[in-house]
User: Which sequence fits this backbone?
C-alpha cells in the first residue's frame, strides 16, 4: 500500500527465491512502453522497471500474463532470467512468486525459450490464448521450442506467467520463461 501511494502503477511484486529478482510490477494505462525507460518512481532510467502491458489484467486472471524486464549487465532487473537457459538453474529456482495486495501466487517454471525477435515469434510466443483450442496450440508451441523438458504441462484453465527479457548474447534474441500457477 505504501508503494502504491508513491506510484499507483505499482500493483504486484515478483520474487524468484535465490535470485536477484525481487521487484514491484507496474502497469501504465495507455502507455505500454513507458516502463521500458522509466524507473518505479517515474524518473528516466535505462534499466526501466518490471512491467506488464495494459491488456493484461492486474488480478492475474488472464490465461497468460506477460511480465517484461531488461537484462541489465549489473545483474539487476531480469538479468537472472537468463540463467534459466541452463537446466541446472531451473532445478535450483523452479518457483516464481507473484503477490498482490490481496493474494499470494506461486508459479512453477514449465518451459524456457530463447529465440530471435520477429513478428512470427511475437505471434507464436507472446499471444494471450482466449479459448481452449488456442491455449492447447500455444502450449504445444512452447513445448516444441523449449530448451529442455521440465515435465510440467499446462491445460486449459491453468494460468500462465511469462517472463520476458533480452539475451545479452545477441540484441535480437529474447528469453522467455513460462510458468504455470500452482494451487497457492
Assistant:
Amino acid at each position: 500500500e505504501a508503494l502504491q501511494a508513491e506510484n499507483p502503477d505499482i500493483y504486484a511484486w515478483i520474487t524468484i527465491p535465490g535470485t536477484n529478482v525481487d521487484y514491484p510490477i507496474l502497469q501504465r494505462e495507455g502507455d505500454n512502453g513507458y516502463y521500458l525507460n522509466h524507473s518505479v518512481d517515474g524518473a528516466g532510467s535505462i534499466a526501466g522497471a518490471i512491467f506488464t502491458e495494459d491488456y493484461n489484467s492486474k488480478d492475474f486472471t488472464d490465461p497468460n500474463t506477460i511480465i517484461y524486464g531488461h537484462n541489465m549487465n549489473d545483474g539487476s532487473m531480469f538479468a537472472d532470467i537468463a540463467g534459466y537457459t541452463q537446466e541446472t538453474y531451473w532445478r535450483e529456482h523452479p518457483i516464481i512468486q507473484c503477490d498482490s495486495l490481496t493474494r499470494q501466487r506461486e508459479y512453477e517454471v514449465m518451459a524456457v525459450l530463447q529465440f530471435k525477435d520477429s513478428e512470427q515469434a511475437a505471434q507464436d510466443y507472446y499471444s494471450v490464448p482466449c479459448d481452449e483450442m488456442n491455449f492447447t496450440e500455444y502450449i504445444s508451441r512452447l513445448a516444441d521450442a523449449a530448451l529442455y523438458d521440465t515435465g510440467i504441462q499446462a491445460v486449459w484453465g491453468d494460468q500462465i506467467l511469462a517472463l520476458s527479457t533480452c539475451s545479452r548474447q545477441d540484441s535480437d534474441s529474447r528469453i522467455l520463461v513460462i510458468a504455470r500457477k500452482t494451487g497457492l
